[in-house]
Amino acid sequence: MPFSHNLRLILSATRSVIPINLAMPSATPRNTVLLNGTNELDLNHAAQLLRTDHLVAFPTETVYGLGANALSSSATSAIFHAKSRPCDNPLIVHIASPADLQTHNLTTQVSPRAMALAKAFWPGPLTLVLPLSKDSKLAREVTAGLDTVAVRVPKHPVAAALLAKAGVPVAAPSANLSGRPSPTCAKHVMRDLEGRVDAVVDGGELWKGGGWGVESTVIHVGQHGVDILRPGVIGIEDIRQVVGKILIRNGKTTDGERVRAPGMKYRHYAPRARVEVIAEGHIEQRIAELRQEGKLVGILAGEDICESNEGNAVVAVRCGRGDVEGFARGLYRGLRAFDGEETGVGKVDVILAVPPRGTGGMEEAVMNRLMKAASGEKVG
Ligand code: TXA
Ligand code: MG
Questions:
Q1: What is the pLDDT of residues 212-252, one digit of tens each?
Q2: Which atom of ligand 1 is found nearest the CA of 64?
Q3: pTM recorded for the entire structure
Q4: Helix, strand, coil distribution of the chain in percent, nearest 5
Q5: What is the DSSP string of 233-265?
Q6: Residue 109 buriedness (CB in 10 A; 0-12 / 13-18 / 19+)
Q7: For the segment 271-292, what is each residue's pLDDT rounded down to a tens digit?
């Protein structure tokens, strides 16, 4: 949804508690080792752990993922337990190169359009939903019973090296507890999953290392058009440049508003504080109003806005310099900080988020995540 500059308060939410799926048995305790993503021996060890059905979190160019051997039922079902993730939400399969689609017999066919998209954006933050091969050896848990499989080839050098060494397809959702913001550094992963996974490969802080900070775009290429199932780093215009003048639907289908990525129906993250998404021109007035009500206000915005309002509001993280990429890199980290994960940042009552204007793919992805944080609406 494009961000309208005139929109003052887009959404606000009631205070809510992070959801725990009570139907999910708790994860078996595990001893979590922290491995260094730039150390060859550590990477070999992580690859060996993946091959032997252990749970390994690792960095990608979007967010950290929680990986397991996608051919193993016990390994992939352990992902759902570790994250407390509902089991009808399928996982993305990560492979080292497009050739692995065939090597691992993941899909029956890749249409010319899907092939063109793979060529344009792999390795990179694009997930393609493809028809699942009838004699695929993927664990049933990965696809949650669907006849499609979501695949991506990550670009992050640590992810790429790890996948190449592992030699198995790796199923990996974001490495957070279900309902928490996706992690953008190893510390976030440890915070959520220490004792629930076997290893965390530290690839540094993604906001420093050129990571995107929001998840990949999930798309399905049909006969007549392309469906964007989850907005992400790659935007509709990027896709149009490759597929030309064909129908591109943004999560909506002709028979109503059928949501195609199962994860989109689940509740995403709602911080303890209420989130209000607000345009830059209204921030000072809104801070003043909230302060009058006795509220402690935090702001999630670019450097300039943070600086000019710092006296009246708490700044946890400066999200770039007014650019959407910078905002995205700071987004999940900032939300985690306001939940008390960063030393020196106190809890606030209301978070005012001021995303940069624009209608590109990243703006849409950022707005999508912020709206979920603001409304507590079920998404993915
Ligand atoms: O950037 C990313 O995509 C990260 C990194 C770790 O790769 N992964 C990630 O995974 O965000 P996860 O599980 O948090 O989100 C995957 C989304 C979910 O909404 C899921 O429902 C959808 O992809 N999905 C997976 N398989 C699908 C399929 N066969 N058809 C439609 N949607 C699918
Ligand atoms: Mg996720």
A1: 999 999 999 987 789 999 999 999 899 999 998 777 777 65
A2: 6
A3: 0.91
A4: 35, 20, 50
A5: SS-HHHHHHHH-SSEEESS-BTTB----SGGGG
A6: exposed
A7: 888 899 999 999 999 999 999 9
Residue 151 main-chain phi, psi, to 5 deg: -130, 145
Mean pLDDT for all residues in the chain: 88
Handedness of CA 13, 14, 16, 19 (dihedral sign): negative
Please name the helix (run of DSSP H) or strand (run of DSSP E) that holds residue 331, with its range, or none.
Answer: helix 324-336
Q: How far is the CA of 175 from the centre of ligand 1 (A)?
A: 12
Written as six digits, the tokens of 213 are 């900070």
What strand order describes the sheet that includes 274-277? 274-277, 350-353, 297-301, 314-318
Is the pLDDT at 380 greater than 80? The verdict is: no
What are 151's two structure tokens?
């695949």
Residue with tokens 């550094």: 185
DSSP state of 325: H
Give bridge partners of residue 170 from the DSSP assignment.
69, 94
Q: Tell me which residues have their CB closer than 6 angstroms to ligand 1.
A: 60, 62-63, 65, 89-92, 125, 127, 129, 143, 146, 148-150, 152, 172-174, 215-216, 218, 229-230, 260-264, 380
Tell me how far the alpha carbon of residue 182 lies from the centroid of ligand 2, in angstroms.
Answer: 6
Give the number of the ligand closest to the Cα of residue 91: 1
Distances (CA, A) of 50 to 166, 214, 340: 6, 24, 32
Q: Is the peptide bond between 154 and the residue preceding it cis, with omega within 30 degrees of 0?
A: no
Q: Which amino acid belongs to residue 341?
A: E
